[in-house]
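Input (structure):
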């Protein structure tokens, strides 16, 4: 069974999630070091936004997702953004990613938000999110270079 906890309650995993983030998305921000990533997640040791959610399977950390404000100024105002959705290699394709996104949605709703948005670079993931009820919003060019898809989920 997958167990979810906030990074603020398990700060010993800060280095691991920062490393995942750096390895997976560091190419988007080549100016940022692993230490910058550690600092970023250090700012997410909260119960309110920005927060990072951890997923554990048999007490092993297998995934993370963050709920953050619109730091990229994509025009979503006060609505939060789902960010850094990640399942560790070796634990993928077992339904964990789906459960992680659903848990992040639930927690965003519990914090009082009516919708969540995200942007993705990998077009093949559009289907993954559509399956979970997310809708296409528009395409953007991120950092003047990367084609990204913005998607949105209305929370009940
Ligand atoms: C994207 C990611 C979180 C999915 O996690 P996962 O645990 O493998 O996903 P699930 O097993 O819950 O998959 C749910 C469904 O989506 C599909 N799916 C998962 N990853 C997919 C992908 N990359 N492309 C297309 N479909 C995908 C699965 O086949 C599955 O469909 P099914 O239920 O019909 O079999 C994981 O692959 C990952 O961490 N990737 C690297 C980081 C990344 O790209 N994150 C997304 C940023 S927004």
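Output (sequence):
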């Amino acid at each position: 069974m997958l167990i979810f906890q906030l990074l603020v309650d398990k700060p010993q995993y800060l280095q691991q999630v920062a490393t995942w983030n750096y390895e997976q998305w560091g190419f988007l921000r080549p100016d940022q070091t692993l230490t910058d990533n550690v600092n970023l997640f250090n700012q997410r040791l909260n119960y309110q936004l920005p927060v990072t959610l951890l997923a554990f399977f048999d007490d092993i950390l297998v995934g993370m997702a963050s709920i953050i404000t619109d730091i990229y100024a994509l025009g979503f105002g006060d609505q939060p953004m789902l960010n850094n959705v990640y399942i560790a290699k070796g634990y993928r394709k077992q339904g964990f990613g789906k459960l992680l996104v659903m848990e992040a949605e639930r927690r965003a709703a519990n914090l009082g938000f009516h919708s969540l948005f995200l942007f993705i670079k990998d077009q093949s993931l559009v289907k993954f999110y559509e399956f979970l009820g997310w809708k296409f919003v528009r395409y953007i060019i991120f950092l003047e270079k990367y084609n990204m898809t913005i998607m949105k989920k209305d929370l009940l």
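Notes: The chain is about 30% helix and 35% strand. The domain at 2-154 is CATH 3.40.630.30 (Aminopeptidase).
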